[in-house]
């Protein structure tokens, strides 16, 4: 019989984390669901039976993360994957008004939490190898997709993923970061209004679901991605690919007006324009 894989999923009680636990269990994994929220964590874990253990965890606390990783070794014999998913919206408001404690809380959950998951996950994977998957965000790639502290923290997570992959690659421990766009979860509200907001920005017509992100996390967790490390993968329905939409300011897309042709710039040769068939 092939050995069953085991993972620690932080923030596994809700949203993307819960979808990830569900996807991994469906794929034959056993999971330690590590979450701050004991009520939702226990309730979620109970639905999976023996394949999932809940461990109450604050990812900002080193002892808690060490305990969660240790619980996975104790219950399932080893750790093959850590999904550093736990997250909060964190500090918001103008930079000139934000309290240092709120800024530090944001970074403690989003960055220190990922560091600790990498540190203790990689220690448990020594000699065996494994995969670490961090939750970044498109907010970590540019401004405009999240509050300042959140965005800066997610940028740190993306870079930490690359440096960790470089350090841990020789030990066959892969580290990748998944950067979702807008995914309808409790973190972003109930989705009311999301469709209208995204319609003008996201090329893909459907809103992102936690399952869409969980599928990519599961791919990165398992051997199918064995040569992928140090990567930051956007899962955003083409939101970032669509770019700054400057074309609208420069007269719009001729294609949308049924025009096709070639602009020869300042060569002295004129443009060719015709109506598309
Ligand atoms: N939903 C989105 O649109 C979106 C987009 C980009 C990135 N993300 C990222 O995906 C991850 C999951 O987000 P979600 O939308 O599923 O959120 P969610 O609020 O549905 O779930 C987050 C979970 O993390 C837990 N958590 C919070 N602080 C914790 C802590 N200190 N220790 C342990 N657990 C803690 C919560 O209790 C909750 O169960 C986050 O890192 C978030 O930043 C989400």
Automatic annotation (TrEMBL):
Pfam families associated with the record: adh_short_C2
Record's keyword terms, sorted: Lipid metabolism, NAD, Oxidoreductase, Steroid metabolism
Keyword Magnesium in annotation: no
Keyword Oxidoreductase: yes
Domain of life: Bacteria
Region listing for Disordered, in residue ranges: 251-277
Family note: Belongs to the short-chain dehydrogenases/reductases (SDR) family.
Protein name: SDR family oxidoreductase
């Amino acid at each position: 019989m092939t050995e069953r894989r085991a993972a620690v999923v932080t923030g596994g009680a809700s949203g993307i984390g819960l979808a990830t636990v569900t996807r991994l269990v469906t794929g034959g994994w056993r999971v330690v669901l590590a979450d701050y929220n004991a009520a939702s964590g226990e309730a979620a874990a109970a639905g999976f039976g023996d394949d999932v253990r809940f461990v109450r965890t604050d990812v900002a606390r080193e002892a808690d993360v060490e305990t969660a990783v240790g619980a996975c070794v104790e219950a399932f014999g080893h750790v093959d994957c850590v999904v550093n998913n736990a997250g909060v919206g964190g500090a918001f408001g103008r930079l000139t008004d934000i309290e240092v404690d709120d800024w530090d809380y944001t970074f403690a959950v989003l960055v220190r939490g990922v560091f600790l998951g990498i540190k203790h996950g990689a220690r448990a994977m020594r000699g065996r190898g494994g995969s670490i998957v961090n939750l970044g965000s498109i907010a970590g790639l540019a401004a405009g997709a999240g509050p300042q502290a959140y965005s800066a923290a997610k940028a740190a997570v993306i870079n930490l993923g690359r440096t960790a992959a470089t350090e841990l690659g020789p030990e066959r421990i892969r580290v990748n970061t998944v950067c979702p766009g807008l995914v309808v979860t409790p973190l972003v509200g109930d989705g009311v209004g999301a469709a209208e907001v995204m319609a003008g920005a996201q090329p893909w017509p459907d809103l992102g679901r936690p399952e869409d992100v969980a599928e990519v996390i599961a791919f990165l967790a398992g051997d199918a991605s064995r040569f992928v490390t140090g990567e930051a993968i956007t899962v955003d329905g083409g939101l970032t690919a669509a770019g700054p939409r400057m074309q609208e300011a420069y007269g719009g897309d001729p294609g949308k007006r049924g025009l096709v042709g070639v602009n020869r710039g300042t060569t002295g040769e004129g443009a060719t324009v015709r109506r598309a068939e």
